[in-house]
Amino acid sequence: MIWVLCDFVWVENASYAVKKGARRTLIRVLETILCLAHPLMTYITEGIWQRVKTLAGAEGENIRLLHHPESNANKVDKEAEAAIAWSKQVIEGVRNIPREMNISPAKKIPLILRGGSSRDNELLNQAQSLLTKLASLENITWLEAGENAPASATALVSDMELLVPMASLIDVKAESARLQKEINKLVKDLSRVEGKLNNPKVVDKVPTDVVAKEKDRLTEMKNA
Q1: Same-domain status, 103 and 120
Q2: Do 177 and 164 belong to one domain?
Q3: Is the dihedral of CA 141, 80, 85, 15 positive or negative?
Q4: CB 132, CB 161: distance < 8 Å
Q5: Alpha carbon of 127 to those of 43, 90, 144: distances in Å?
Q6: pLDDT tens-digit profile of 15-69?
Q7: What is the C-alpha separation between 146 and 150, in angstroms, rounded?
Q8: Cα–Cα distance measured from residue 66 to residue 35, given in angstroms and rounded to the nearest whole number
Q9: Which end of the chain is more exposed for a tag (fewer CB within 10 A), N or C?
């Protein structure tokens, strides 16, 4: 929740009211954390609180005199929590794609959405600026029904599909060469391990647990 509020402060096209509200909430959250941590970190929390108490609208000589924070279930906004959870799923789904393909996280990528519900569309309209910033997106488009999608890496958020076009991510020739190199290495390692396990002179001299590990490794390579 806090990381979302921090980014709302810096989203360029966020309204003044949104930025002011985010700053205010961050200060209140910080003050609450300081109160909870005060018994364990007395001097540190007091020093920080003295710097932020004016911004928090707090009164008193020290943090010890504040009322201890208490939970209020009536103030829990389930709809807001669900919206934040949705945004986190989208951001994590998009971030995982370049990570799995060894693409620099600094590279801005286009995102295509397919399927989903009217609620997904509503949440996208609310959080588009935030998603664009946090997921390093070039743009976000929604695929119309019946429209063909380009060859893409995919991730799912419930019934909504996240599509990241491959053409924007990789050099096909370079990626093919990289994959072939990995295949050649795997074949070489597979042949070497099989050779050791099929050689009684080697197997008889090696501890049983080592042989078992090599057999497990051989199985993993064959299933790769």
Answers
A1: yes
A2: no
A3: positive
A4: no
A5: 39, 10, 20
A6: 667 677 778 888 888 888 888 888 888 889 888 888 888 887 777 788 887 777 7
A7: 13
A8: 8
A9: C
Picking from 121, 88, 125, 104, the residue whose alpha carbon sits closest to that of residue 171 is: 104
Longest Cα pair distance anywhere in the chain, in angstroms? Answer: 81
- Domain span holding position 138: 78-168
For 40, 107, 115, 127, 142, the CA distances from 158, given in Å and listed in that order, are 41, 26, 10, 17, 16
What is the amino acid identity at position 119?
Answer: R
Task: Tell me: do 97 and 164 sit in the same domain.
Answer: yes
Domain count, the chain: 3
pLDDT of residue 195: 79
Within 8 A by CB and 6+ apart from 137, the residues are: 94, 108, 109, 110, 111, 131
The shares of helix, strand and coil residues in the chain, as percent rounded to the nearest 5, are 65, 10, 25
In terms of phi and psi (left: phi > 0; alpha: psi -120 to 50; beta: otherwise), the region of 136 is left
Residue 182 burial (CB count, 10 A): 11
Report the relative pairing of strands 152-157 and 137-142 from DSSP bridges: unpaired
Cα separation, 88 vs 193, in Å, equals: 43
User: Do 105 and 64 share a structural domain?
Assistant: no
- Domain harbouring 156, CATH code: 3.30.2320
Question: Tens digits of per-residue pLDDT, 46-59?
Answer: 888 888 888 877 77
